[in-house]
């Protein structure tokens, strides 16, 4: 009778261990899927970051170019003002 009980207990333990192994295998598979999803998201974020950096660099170049153009325009207008002021001063001296 003892051998029969031990055999029954061992079978139950074996069944429980097999069930636990099945659960752990499922968890491992879920972790693999989760890892793939996270890696895909990470790659997507990296691609978006590179695209954003590229876009911002282009915008920065454009803004610097526009700023240089505007500074040259202001400088030329300032020269015109100085020349006109000199002409005014000359006419005042003549008068």
TrEMBL record:
<keyword id="KW-0175">Coiled coil</keyword>
<feature type="coiled-coil region">
    <location>
        <begin position="7"/>
        <end position="94"/>
    </location>
</feature>
<protein>
    <recommendedName>
        <fullName>Translation initiation factor 2</fullName>
    </recommendedName>
</protein>
């Amino acid at each position: 009778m003892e051998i029969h009980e031990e055999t029954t207990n061992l079978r139950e333990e074996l069944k429980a261990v097999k069930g636990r192994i099945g659960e752990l295998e499922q968890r491992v598979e879920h972790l693999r899927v989760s890892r793939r999803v996270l890696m895909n998201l990470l790659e997507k974020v990296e691609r978006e970051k590179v695209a954003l950096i590229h876009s911002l660099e282009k915008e920065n170049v454009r803004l610097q170019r526009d700023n240089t153009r505007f500074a040259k325009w202001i400088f030329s207008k300032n020269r015109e003002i100085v020349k006109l002021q000199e002409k005014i001063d000359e006419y005042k001296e003549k008068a």
